[in-house]
Design a protein that fits this description.
By secondary structure, the protein is α/β, with parallel strands linked by helices. Helices cover 28% and strands 17% of the residues.
Length: 414
């Protein structure tokens, strides 16, 4: 039942810009990666190792990308999913966004404005859609609603430069779509029918955004970055990549990544060197003409020089991934080499491995027996890197109940 979805508007972003064939999230789940995107630093530097640190959220003192842009005169908005904390000090409007319309947690019902996930309430707890800090009572299908709100924000900016984080949650669970889209895929069975419908809505809404920008002569001078915060789930089609969300195999961390910026960057270009969502922070600042921040040293690289020339050294010699050090799950990429330690491999057995991704993108051939010293070298580098990171944001005496975990255990017991 694994089928492709026709996505002409997402495809048009790639054809009008640069597609990264080795684009990476910094984690195999969403919240830690989102912390890295907006802070420009490995989330481990913030003590944000896993999804459960969201109960504390982004530290109050951590300055985020929209704050720098706002100071430079940009009008800023977050439309959609936040999932970086529900405290007053890390609410989107306290972290540099003039406008916020969306939800604070990790998932949400697409039709009901009050149902989503929360740490206390489980997967279907009370989790309202917010307009700034006010709850919203009526919504369109959420993917369409977010586009409506995004277009309204751009319209209201007038001649002001703007920074928009349009954070769609589709096709994240809960799996829901408008009936007219579901009907299009009558021949597709089970969950795949709903996923196809959700992805088609998403592509149509990206089309609305592109047409809106073009009609106002804003498209050529607007940098659009299309990216995911983790790989697809096990029920998605992850190409030939091994694993899925929740794994440090390629299927969990290699993600769609496109930058389209017609006035500056070439079109119909594929960039093969490894890049990271960490690179978004310095690349956006550079495009906006904002100097490198003096109060932090981003881990990402400004990609514009690499993309304009499309030759020279790779942006990153090493890329790192890790869970909470207690679990000792990690990966390191160095050129074509990738070392990985997973608590379990896909067959349920503890595993360490070394792969050459140029020759084996599907991570099928473990080369650790042939090149043990290369694995040891990369492991030493990882241990040194992780050894310099602070502890988790959440102390041993600060844990709150994981409502989602309780909900799943309850369902399994039934």
């Amino acid at each position: 039942h694994l089928v492709d979805v026709n996505t002409p508007y997402i495809d048009s972003l790639a054809s009008s810009g640069i597609r990264f064939s080795n684009g990476y999230a910094t984690h195999h789940t969403c919240a830690p990666s989102r912390a890295a995107i907006l802070s420009g630093r490995y989330q481990q530097r913030l003590g944000f190792y896993e999804i459960w640190e969201v109960q504390k959220g982004i530290p109050e003192k951590e300055k985020l990308l929209p704050q720098y842009l706002k100071e430079a005169g940009y009008h800023t908005a977050l439309i959609g999913k936040w999932h970086l904390g529900e405290k007053a000090y890390n609410h989107p409007t306290a972290k540099g966004y003039d406008r916020f319309y969306g939800f604070l947690g990790g998932m949400h019902d697409y039709f009901d404005p009050f149902i989503g996930d929360s740490w206390e309430g489980g997967a279907r707890g009370f989790a309202p859609i917010f307009d700034q800090t006010d709850t919203v009572r009526d919504i369109n299908y959420l993917t369409i609603e977010f586009t409506d709100q995004a277009l309204g924000f751009i319209e209201n900016c007038g001649s002001l430069p703007f920074f928009l984080t349009l954070s769609y949650n589709a096709p994240h669970v809960m799996l829901q779509a408008p009936p007219e889209y579901i009907e299009r895929y009558e021949g597709t069975k089970g969950k795949y029918r709903m996923i196809r419908a959700m992805n088609k809505v998403l592509d149509d809404q990206i089309g609305r955004l592109l047409h809106f920008l073009e009609a106002r002569d804003l498209r050529k001078n607007t940098m659009i970055i299309y990216v995911s915060d983790n790989g697809g789930t096990r029920i998605n089609h992850n190409w030939k990549l091994k694993g899925a969300k929740s794994w440090f195999y390629e299927g969990g961390i290699r993600v769609p990544f496109i930058i389209s910026y017609p006035v500056v960057l070439p079109s119909r270009t594929v960039f093969d060197a490894p890049v990271s969502i960490l690179d978004i922070f310095p690349t956006v600042l550079a495009a906006a003409g904002i100097a490198d921040p003096k109060d932090k040293e981003p881990d990402g690289k400004n990609l514009l020089p690499f993309l304009i020339r499309n030759h020279g050294p790779d942006p990153h010699e090493f890329l790192y991934w890790s869970s909470d050090p207690y679990f000792d799950r990690w990966a390191v990429r160095n050129g074509d080499w990738k070392a990985i330690r997973e608590s379990e491999d896909l067959n349920g057995k503890p595993g360490v491995a070394l792969y050459n991704l140029r020759n084996d993108v599907g991570e099928e051939k473990n080369l650790i027996g042939r090149y043990p010293e290369k694995f040891k070298e990369l492991e030493r580098l990882y241990r040194k890197w992780i050894g310099g990171m602070p502890p988790s944001l959440v102390g041993d005496d600060e844990w709150t109940p994981n409502g989602n975990g309780w909900m799943y255990k309850y369902k399994e017991s039934k």
